[in-house]
Design goal:
Layout lengths: L10 H10 L21 E7 L7 E6 L7 E6 L5 E6 L7 E7 L14 E6 L2 E7 L11 E7 L10 E7 L4 E8 L5 E7 L4 E6 H5 L7 E6 L12 E9 L4 E8 L2 E6 L7 E6 L11 E4 L5 E5 L7 E5 L1 H5 L4 E2 L4 E3 L9 E5 L2 E5 L5 E5 L7 E6 L9 E2 L6 E4 L4 E7 L4 E6 L3 E7 L25 H4 L5
Parallel strand pairs: 17-21
Antiparallel strand pairs: 1-31, 2-3, 3-4, 4-5, 6-7, 7-8, 8-9, 10-11, 11-12, 12-13, 14-15, 15-16, 16-17, 18-19, 19-20, 20-22, 23-24, 24-25, 25-26, 27-28, 29-30, 30-31
């Protein structure tokens, strides 16, 4: 497999090195229509084109084999969500579409994020919304739908709403170690993440189930107006603590949320002398030792941090990445997740990218497939002028079905994609001697049991 990565040191030196030394191996030609094809070890299973430019956003996959559903967040003039059936991965099909009422009256992104969760034998999908204040649904942060009845789409119904002026950027449902199912949500206009108790929310609690708030420690700085972008939470079996990983103003911030009503700040990642002033996504490894950091900035690599000093309490700020990776130094990466030793990346113009983190100081590309088929720098130009001249186009989100290794991806313009990687037939932490903790939750047993369970 061609090695298209570069090795570098920490901090600013890492960034400079990766910018000066592009990926070492061959890169697809930048044809007028964009990069095409993929590496020999990636097989395209399905592609479902969906209408419109920048109408497809975040993605989530149900994990139980008997529920082969993918949830696609829809944006702008298609604000809502789409459910794709993967009963036959080689023949993916749209099963259901839902859109907000009076689409033409809505102003704003419409919401890029959505996740499914399970509670007491019922299945739900929470869809984040992001409309401008003072416009229709400008105070709606998220809507919860009961999707238990799938594939009978007539049984899908709305069961709850969370109000938040300006909406949410991201929502992340999490099965807490104390048994509760929580939703971490990032308000667009507030320097914090909100924590909601699903049971209270669905029971009609007047506070909508709000039980706590995770502050952004950079609140008050000029760049802190938006607080957090993405939110993630995971359990650490070694310390038996729940951790929150927030990306946003000031970089990346980690909190102890074992008691979500009273979050405790642990440490921040800044990338060196304040170089990382704003973070997009922070994805820890499954054992919590390292984290992969996405800045969503052109010409920037994906950064790899060693979290040891922060976890031990010997440093409140970690400013020197130990490694980095890029598919193409001219572009950017959007988001991703870790299934050790692999990192699955939605890499904008560079589509699906998978790299190996077995040596955090020298990540190596494992495979790729280009989904954008777009000319370079013809991407998102802003809410008022969507068609612009940025690299923010192409792959939006990526998810993996752990049971069988199916890889799914959304592309802002080209729709939904499903792939398989040769030799990757599923993931369980026990195969790699790491905790069986990932973005995917064990909704029935909780994270402590999940860390021990063998699939």
């Amino acid at each position: 497999m061609p090695d298209r990565t570069a090795r570098a040191g920490g901090g600013v030196g890492l960034i400079a090195c990766l910018l000066l030394h592009a990926a070492g191996g061959p890169t697809a030609a930048q044809a007028p229509g964009g990069k095409t094809g993929g590496s020999p070890n990636i097989t395209l299973m399905s592609h479902v084109p969906l209408d419109g430019y920048f109408t497809v956003g975040g993605l989530d996959l149900e994990q139980e084999p008997e529920r082969p559903y993918a949830y696609l967040s829809r944006m702008f003039d298609q604000a809502g969500f789409t459910i794709v059936s993967l009963a036959d991965p080689a023949n993916a099909k749209v099963l259901y579409d839902w859109r907000v009422d009076n689409l033409a009256l809505h102003v704003g992104v419409g919401g890029e994020s959505g996740r499914y969760f399970k509670r007491r034998s019922r299945y739900y999908y929470v869809k984040a919304f992001l409309f401008e204040r003072g416009t229709p649904d400008g105070d709606v942060g998220a809507v919860v739908f009961d999707v238990t009845g799938l594939p009978a789409v007539s049984q899908i119904k709305e069961v709850g709403r969370i109000r938040s002026p300006g909406g949410f950027i991201d929502v992340f449902p999490y099965r807490h170690s104390d048994g509760r199912v929580l939703i971490f949500a990032t308000p667009w206009t507030e320097p914090r993440a909100n924590v909601y108790d699903v049971d209270k929310l669905l029971a009609g609690d007047p506070n909508q189930g709000l039980i706590g708030q995770v502050p952004n420690p950079q609140a008050g700085l000029p760049q802190s107006a938006n607080g957090y972008h993405d939110a993630y939470a995971a359990y650490d079996p070694a310390s038996q603590r729940d951790r929150f990983y927030g990306a946003g103003s000031g970089g990346f911030h980690v909190y102890d949320v074992t008691k979500p009503e009273e979050p405790k700040f642990l440490f921040s990642l800044t990338g060196g002398a304040g170089v990382v002033s704003y973070g997009h996504t922070l994805a820890p490894t499954n054992d919590g030792r390292y984290a992969v950091a996405f800045t969503e900035r052109q010409f920037w690599p994906v950064l790899v941090f060693d979290l040891k000093a922060g976890l031990e309490g010997s440093a409140a700020t970690l400013s020197s990445p130990v490694g980095g990776w890029t598919a193409d130094w001219r572009d950017a990466s959007h988001t991703g997740s870790v299934l050790w030793p692999y990192v699955f990346v939605a890499a904008f113009e560079d589509g699906l990218q998978i790299f190996n983190l077995i040596d955090p100081q020298e990540p190596k590309t494992e495979g790729w497939y280009y989904t954008c088929v777009c000319a370079h720098q013809t991407g998102f130009g802003g809410i008022r002028n969507v068609r612009g001249t940025s690299v923010f186009n192409g792959a939006a989100d990526v998810a993996v079905r752990n049971a069988d290794g199916l890889i799914a991806m959304t592309d802002y313009t080209s729709g939904f994609w499903a792939f398989r990687m040769a030799g990757f037939r599923g993931w369980s932490g026990r195969h790699w001697k790491v905790p069986n903790i990932s973005r995917e939750q064990d909704w029935d047993h909780g994270p402590a049991e999940q860390a021990r369970r063998e699939r």
